[in-house]
Automatic annotation (TrEMBL):
A biological-process GO annotation: methylation
Matches recorded under Pfam families: Methyltransf_31 (PF13847)
Coiled coil ranges: none
Occurrences of domain Methyltransferase (ranges): 53-157
Enzyme Commission (EC) number: 2.1.1.222, 2.1.1.64
Source superkingdom: Bacteria
UniProt keywords, alphabetically: Methyltransferase, Transferase
GO MF assignments: 2-polyprenyl-6-hydroxyphenol methylase activity; 3-demethylubiquinol 3-O-methyltransferase activity
Enzyme class at the top of the EC tree: transferase
Protein name: Class I SAM-dependent methyltransferase
Length: 257
């Protein structure tokens, strides 16, 4: 069973790897998407669809603050960005200092500390799958919504009924207690309305053959490290997408009157 320390270690390592691979203008963790237009990051896509003006927003899993800064640039009233990674939050504060947005507050925190009835919009981008207790964290996020508020979740959703060896290995490498699935949202009360958009077609296509060739490297390279686990886990996730048992989904949950 994973612990909060495991998840913090994982996100700190992800930050260190991805920050070296991508430019300062890109969010260092999210997938590259073929969204068309003038952007390829999921936060930019969300901004194009959702009006954030004058809204109070929680960016739950904010990373280095890329999305939070976009919300502020688009005239959000208040933005709270949280991450379990102290390295990400340190970077987020540095990024904030470049723009002098007084409406943003970055904190090292987790889902369960979400203040009740405080937000018009809560964004959970590629972070909810790392929850250690889904029911507790999901209910905390729902409880954080104002009336007519929306919880926006974008993440990898497992579509198969059987967790195969590839999926189990992926879970181990990325310190996951479970694989996020649509079934996790089946018991919500009538107070909440769910809308779903499949974004899988925006992802670059990769072949199982090429992914398997890359995975062979990790069988030869026997030295254990967090970086090896993360790279291998990323390839296993690619393989699950290539085998069409994983989808990239956008879920919008509205708290109704």
């Amino acid at each position: 069973m994973n612990t909060p320390a495991n998840i913090t270690q994982l996100y700190n390592a992800l930050f260190q790897i991805e920050a070296k691979l991508k430019s300062d203008k890109e969010y260092p963790i999210h997938k590259r998407l073929n969204l068309g237009g003038n952007f390829n990051d999921i936060y930019e896509y969300l901004i194009s669809k959702i009006d954030v003006k004058n809204k109070s927003i929680l960016d739950a899993g904010c990373g280095v603050g890329f999305g939070s800064l976009l919300f502020a640039k688009n005239n959000a009233a208040k933005v709270v960005g949280i991450s379990v990674s102290d390295l990400e939050i340190e970077s987020a504060h540095r990024n904030k200092s470049k723009y002098h947005f007084e409406s943003i507050d970055f904190q090292v925190s987790n889902f369960e500390n979400t203040a009740a009835s405080s937000y018009d919009l809560i964004f959970c981008v590629e972070s909810l799958k790392h929850s250690l207790d889904f029911d507790k964290d999901f209910n905390a996020l729902l409880n954080g919504l104002n009336t007519n508020g929306k919880l926006i979740i974008v993440d990898d959703f497992f579509e198969d009924k059987i967790i195969n060896a590839t999926a189990k290995s992926f879970m181990t490498d990325w310190n996951l207690n479970f694989l996020l699935a649509l079934s996790h949202f089946s018991n919500m009360s009538d107070e909440f309305k769910l809308d779903l958009e499949d974004l899988t077609h925006y992802m670059p296509k990769k072949s199982v053959f090429k992914i398997n060739i890359q995975l062979l490297f990790f069988k030869v390279f026997r030295r254990k490290s967090m970086f090896k686990k993360l790279f291998k886990g990323g390839l296993l996730l690619d393989k699950l997408f290539a085998k069409k048992v994983m989808k990239y989904q956008l879920i919008s949950i509205t708290k109704q009157e």
